[in-house]
Structure formats: C-alpha cells, structure tokens
Design goal:
The protein has 70 residues and is mainly alpha-helical. The chain is 79% helix and 0% strand. It contains four helices and no strands. It is globular, with a radius of gyration of 12 Å. The C terminus is likely disordered.
C-alpha cells in the first residue's frame, strides 16, 4: 500500500519523472486507502475536499458505474 500512495504523490505533484495526472493520482490514493494505508486515505480525502475538478468527474463516473451493477 505504501508504494501505491507514493505513486499517488508522484502523479499528484508530477514527481519522479511522471507527468502531473490528478485522476491517476486519486486512483492510486484510493487503492492504497482500500488496503488500509493512512496516507492513501489522506491523499484521496484531500483531493475530494479541495474539489479537484478532474477527480470529482472521475469519482462521480466511478460511482455511477458501481450503482448500475449494484
């Protein structure tokens, strides 16, 4: 889980030679959080609280897909 959160940081800030990619960062944070990593939980929550536009669209689309099959 720590590696997933670290990848989230890299994509969020555009570090480690990776491009800045908010939806991908959120996905890594969310996966780390699902495995119980506190840093992943904080990263995902901060992105939602800040209202990062691309992330809100990504999260909304993901919820719609889940609700269709639930």
């Amino acid at each position: 889980p720590a590696a997933l959160a670290q990848l989230g940081d890299y994509y969020y800030y555009g570090g480690g030679g990776l491009p800045r990619d908010q939806p991908r960062a959120f996905n890594y944070y969310e996966n780390a959080a699902a495995r119980g990593h506190a840093g992943g939980m904080v990263g995902a929550a901060n992105m939602l609280i800040k209202g990062d536009h691309d992330v809100l669209i990504f999260a909304h689309t993901k919820c719609e897909c889940i609700s269709i099959y639930a």
